[in-house]
Design a protein that fits this description.
Layout lengths: L1 H12 L2 H17 L6 H22 L3 H12 L1 H8 L1 H13 L2 H4 L9 H17 L4 E5 L6 H4 L3 E6 L2 H7 L10 E5 L2 E7 L15 H12 L3 E5 L6 E5 L2 E3 L4 H12 L3 H27 L1
Parallel strand pairs: 1-3
Antiparallel strand pairs: 1-5, 2-4, 3-4, 5-6, 6-7
């Protein structure tokens, strides 16, 4: 009861600026968390978090020698983190630097006219899958992928089945790289992407699949991969690879990822939270019985 009383007392003493401060900090944390979900960024965050936790525990348990050593480590910890996690930090900063200002504050307009683009992409992937033609198609979202666009040849053309198939034709000069679709247009082709270093990927996956997963780890892109050896279609989102997709499944997945309105995403999130709360309440009722 004492804790509740103290909490209510603190609330009565708070001014409007305190409430504004809490809301702004909470919103910034909410917007920044998705940006550090990649494997590299999580490694950095986990390492720093473990060091802070150990420092606090040693102080709590009066382990003076160990606490002194950890304090010295924390004193030079910033330099150590920069040296040890240089590639991960560079990717994380690139991601933050490339995120659009309007999309960060939730002001970006919803994606329009993506149905036709998805339809053309699915048709091209269906034909390339049947003919065993390899393909790597990247749909840029909030992150414009400017660093990787520069490694290829700028095209800036309308998305069509014929164009996609021509670019990935085995004898075409750009077929080995990735195609980046941005703002509803084929923006660049023949692009070089970072390879994933994840040990969870199957050993039979080649460079094309590892590049697709790699770009999805360091950005919010949706990546479609067609295997040259087997003709199977895969999609990588957020570092997760979904393989052996039929063209109907591919179309449905792309629509779910690229055609969602912000309001629909929020409704889905609220629905999921309600379902979880309902399950917990149901589980509690059963335990009481």
């Amino acid at each position: 009861m004492t804790y509740i009383t103290n909490f209510l007392t603190q609330l009565t003493r708070m001014q409007w600026s305190d409430y504004l401060d809490i809301i702004v900090v909470a919103y910034l944390i909410y917007r920044f968390l998705p940006m550090i979900r990649s494997t590299g960024a999580m490694r950095v965050a986990t390492t720093v978090g473990v060091l802070l936790l150990l420092t606090w525990v040693t102080e709590l348990l009066n382990l003076h020698t160990l606490h002194f050593l950890l304090e010295q480590v924390m004193a030079v910890g910033l330099i150590a983190v920069v040296v040890l996690f240089q590639p991960e930090l560079r990717r994380m900063l690139d991601h933050l630097g490339n995120v659009k200002f309007r999309s960060f504050f939730g002001m970006e307009k919803p994606v329009q006219e993506m149905e036709g683009i998805i339809d053309q992409t699915v048709r091209a992937c269906e034909v390339m899958s049947r003919e065993r033609v390899g393909a790597l198609i990247v749909f840029a979202r909030d992150n414009p992928l400017e660093e990787y666009v520069k490694t290829g040849t700028q095209i800036d053309a309308q998305v069509s089945e014929q164009l996609i198939r021509n670019i990935f034709f085995p004898k075409a000069s750009l077929h080995d790289g990735a195609m980046i679709i941005r703002d509803g247009r084929v923006y660049s082709a023949g692009c070089v992407l970072p390879l994933s270093e994840s040990h969870k990927l199957s050993a039979d996956l080649g460079t094309r699949h590892r590049a697709g997963v790699g770009i999805s780890e360091v950005s919010d892109a949706v990546v479609v991969i067609v295997s040259e050896e087997t003709g199977t279609i895969s999609v990588a989102v957020g570092g997760v690879l979904k393989r052996h997709l039929a063209h109907q499944t591919l179309e449905r997945l792309l629509r779910n990822e690229l055609c969602k309105e912000p309001e629909e995403q929020q409704e889905n999130l609220v629905l999921k939270l309600r379902q979880k709360m309902h399950k917990k309440e149901k589980g509690g009722d059963e335990n009481e019985k």
